Amino acid sequence: MIELLSPALKARAQAVKTKWDGFVPKIDARVQEVLAEADAGLDELIALHGNDPGPMGAAFSALQVRFRGLGQKLDEAWEKIDGELDQVRDDADSARDHEALGHLWAELRASYAQAKERIDLAYEGIYTRKNAAWGRALWSQAQRDSQQPVACVKCGAAIQQTVFHQSSNLTCAHCGAVNQLHPGMAAGLLFQGQGLHALAHEQAWNEWLAMHRAEQAYNGHRVPITRDRDALLAAARAYWTRYYVAFQQMHPGFAEAFGSVQQAVDARLAQHSAWDAPVEVQRRAQYQAVVDAAATGDRGAIQRAVAGADLDDAVRCVFEHGDARGTMILLELQHRAEQEDEPLVRWSGEQIARMSRDLRARA
Ligand SMILES: [Zn+2]
Question: Cα(55)–Cα(48) distance, rounded to whole angstroms?
Fold first, then answer.
């Protein structure tokens, strides 16, 4: 795109791009360094202080702070680049220059978003792996603890614990005294703390990633439709199902605490719906109808579907859902409705260029 710029702007735009392209690998390298350091540090900590939530919690907080710092560095660098591109744009005086600069901006903006995503996923990844490693250490410790017989409070006879995930009452076979037994530190952290969550989350990592991408895809739509939301909920359901299936296998008290896997998953999904306003539900259904009508190519059906919808949003919605033919039909309708002076073909071309730039910038 830079080749299309007038000579006076080309060198300046190229300098901004070169600067950005040089910065991104540096931040990626920093991410790898932090990962390597944290990897070794956390393994050591798990081995030494695995039974103590204090140091482990502090270490995970510190890790988060480091990754946030890297994200901030990236944000700041992007703000500078964005500002510098603005300055180049101030001196552009042809439509062609503006278009080329628009594409360059979208390209760099997408590169920024991808770099940000790599930082976020690097953190999520190591947080998940190390938390699960900690969970496994707690699991082994809890098992070792559970094999230690407990002495009866009254007669001192050995009592074999049978319930490990919560407190229980056990009658001594020798003297009949009721002993109240509590889970050890490791079992407590495993069942009531982070442990099982971390292990279940790790098992559902691929589903979590898919859910994360579905969320991004959903947020990437300027005008989402019912199907987009359904895809998001399906991804969330897949994650929580995998999560609770794993959780159930590890937790002897699962039924008592959560009921069935299905019930636990439904409770999670209900939280998604709780935040969904009816007006949004209706809006998505309306634009779903526009997208479906556009897909038929039937002008009459399209006209009926857009009645009551915002034409600009309708075009954008059909465009961002990948229907090129439907987009052209809608642009033609909009061109006529808004009595644009510019010839249809040129005007449509401009609209598409603008929308595709926006789309890439949101990627
Ligand atoms: Zn006893």
Answer: 10
Beta bridge partners of 1: none
Q: Nearest-CA neighbor of 236 among 278, 264, 259, 255?
A: 264
Q: What is the pLDDT of residues 259-276, one digit of tens each?
A: 999 999 999 999 988 888
Residue 258, classified by CB atoms within 10 Å of its CB into exposed (0-12), middle (13-18) or buried (19+), is middle
> What are the start-end ranges of the H helices in the chain?
7-49, 53-90, 95-147, 185-191, 195-203, 205-220, 226-250, 254-258, 261-274, 278-296, 299-306, 311-320, 324-337, 344-362
Separation of 151 CA from ligand 1 center, angstroms?
8
Instruction: Look up residue 228 and give its two tokens.
Output: 């987009």
DSSP state of 177: P
How many Å lie between the centroid of ligand 1 and the Cα of residue 140? 28
Q: pTM of the full predicted structure?
A: 0.87
Distance 173 CA to ligand 1 centre (A): 7
C-alpha 139 – ligand 1 centre gap (Å): 29
Between the alpha carbon of residue 326 and those of residues 224, 319, 322, 340, the distances in Å are 16, 8, 9, 19
- The residue count for the chain: 363
Tell me the CA–centroid distance for residue 150 and ligand 1, in Å. Answer: 10
Pair 2, 100: CB distance under 8 Å: yes
Q: Are 53 and 188 in contact (CB under 8 A)?
A: no
Question: Which residues, including other chains, have CB under 8 Å from residue 321's CB and lie 6 or more apart?
Answer: 221, 225, 291
Rounded to a whole number of angstroms, the CA Rg of the chain reads: 29
Q: Give residues with Cβ within 8 angstroms of 262, minimum separation 6.
A: none
Q: What is the pLDDT of residues 150-203, one digit of tens each?
A: 899 999 999 888 888 888 999 999 999 999 988 888 998 898 888 999 999 999
Ligand 1 center from residue 152 Cα (angstroms) = 5
Q: Ligand 1: distance of its center to the CA of 156 in Å? A: 6
The tokens for 136 are: 């496994």
Rounded distance from Cα 188 to ligand 1 centre (Å): 25
